[in-house]
Amino acid sequence: xxxxxxxxxxxxxxxxxxxxxxxxxxxxxxxxxxxxxxxxxxxxxxxxxxxxxxxxxxxxxxxxxxxxxxxxxxxxxxxxxxxxxxxxxxxxxxxxxxxxxxxxxxxxxxxxxxxxxxxxxxxxxxxxxxxxxxxxxxxxxxxxxxxxxxxxxxxxxxxxxxxxxxxxxxxxxxxxxxxxxxxxxxxxxxxxxxxxxxxxxxxxxxxxxxxxxxxxxxxxxxxxxxxxxxxxxxxxxxxxxxxxxxxxxxxxxxxxxxxxxxxxxxxxxxxxxxxxxxxxx
Length: 281
Description:
The protein is an all-beta fold. It is about 0% helix and about 50% strand. Residues about 5-35 have low confidence and may be disordered.
């Protein structure tokens, strides 16, 4: 079930399956493209979604240009506030759509369709389509702020913007293309970006799955509990690798080791940056 969020508060009932969408950017290559400055007459439109999502199910956020931020709430409802900023006409052409499914709720920033390309649609996981072309439409930033109850999984997928998840008690699986990622959780996390650094603190010692923190250009700093049981694989082409846990050099720029009794694999990767693995409490 899909809904376009209007100004104010909209509660959606939970319903039917899940999946993230292919993102196609019809503009100059993002790393070399400097977005235009916001127009002098910038306006802001705010949409809010709130609803109860059971622990273990997920809230998925799909953004294109802007930040995704999440903090813990002691309440039982997930609250997502999406703020669209830019030229008034362009802002009104961008919708915030919410789709409920069997695994939770997916909320997307949906930009106007690009002629000659498939229509844009919000869908969970790898479904849907999110094409965007800024030329002639002005620039619209969408900032998502998520209030996350304990145990509700956060899936944050961005294209051009940072992802910042602070002090949550939930799994957090995060990605962006241009932007850094910061996450601190008492549970598990993964983070992937292309241009940007990653700083992560994980509170759970028994993961039950592999975890990955990878970037192309940027540093990777990860803190895990001292009691963790895992295999570590770390690789940096042009940076240094530092670890509080014993690691052995396999070849220059690659190190590996076993923490505790071994277990799931922790992969830390960057092409141009340093890697730091720290021992938490």
